[in-house]
Each structure stands twice: as C-alpha cells, then as structure tokens.
C-alpha cells in the first residue's frame, strides 16, 4: 500500500471517529434534556397542578441559587384542573416543590409580550418567546422571555412580567 493511500485511510478513519464522537455527544445532551422534560411533566401531573400536558420547554434565565449556581426552570404547558390553559413553572433542581402557575387568560399573551419588546427596542430579528421565571425580592415572577437581535447586532433577552406587561429585566450577550 502506498504512503498516499495509508494517509488517506488514516484521515478517513479519524474523520469517522470525530463524527461519531460529535454525534454521540449531541445525542447524550438531547437524551438528558428529554429525560428532564419527562420528569418535570410527571412531577406536575402527579402534584395535580396540571391534568394534561401539551409541551415542556426549558428556561435558563438569569436566576441563581443561594450558592450562586444557575437555576433552570421547566415550563410545563397544559390544562389546569379547571380546564384552563396554564403553564406550571418548576425549578429543575426542586421538582418535588409546588410549581408557580401561570393561567394564560390571567396575563398578557406571548404575542403581546413580543409587541412590547418590539415597541420598546425595535429588534432587527426576533427569535423566540417562551415562559420563564424571574426571582426578585424572594418572589418568583412568571415572565415572557423575548429573544432577539438588537440594533447593535447583540443577542438580547427581554423579561416581561406575565401579569402586568412591565419590562423587568434586559440581558445582553
């Protein structure tokens, strides 16, 4: 076998190994996320906060625990025991606690939150809006997180109070 073919074979094998490693890493992350979503869904159903679930999202906002570590929340979308559309917000590290409930008819809609962000900051491009929690003065406040590119080409997150529509926090990355 010539040197050229040997180098080509080694390069191809290295490429296959690297691809397998990347795929495996991504798959492990997806599996962990799905497991977390399934666990949050089951916790909220078991507690009776929701009677059915349509989807689960993860919120990784600016919240931290007392030791300074980031705290993620799951937003479990579904129907409450009265049949109303609701979102149960529960900390990923405290799934045994009662979630904070956001009854969708009792606050501003996702579209209204996007309109508030658009009116105040005129984003270049909107990416997504999802429900989350801001911890303020010992309280957990349901918020809409609106993510967009601002006029300076920065990723920006507006946190808008679900109940009042007031802008509570802006994070720029």
UniProtKB/TrEMBL annotation:
UniProt domain PepSY: residue ranges: 108-166
Q: Which residues form the signal peptide?
A: none
Q: Which InterPro entries match?
A: Cystatin_sf (IPR046350), PepSY (IPR025711)
Top-level taxonomic group: Bacteria
Q: Which SUPFAM superfamilies match?
A: Cystatin/monellin
Report the Gene3D superfamilies cross-referenced here. Answer: 3.10.450.40
- Its recorded name reads PepSY domain-containing protein
Q: Which organism is it from?
A: Metabacillus flavus
Q: What is the lineage of its organism?
A: Bacteria, Bacillati, Bacillota, Bacilli, Bacillales
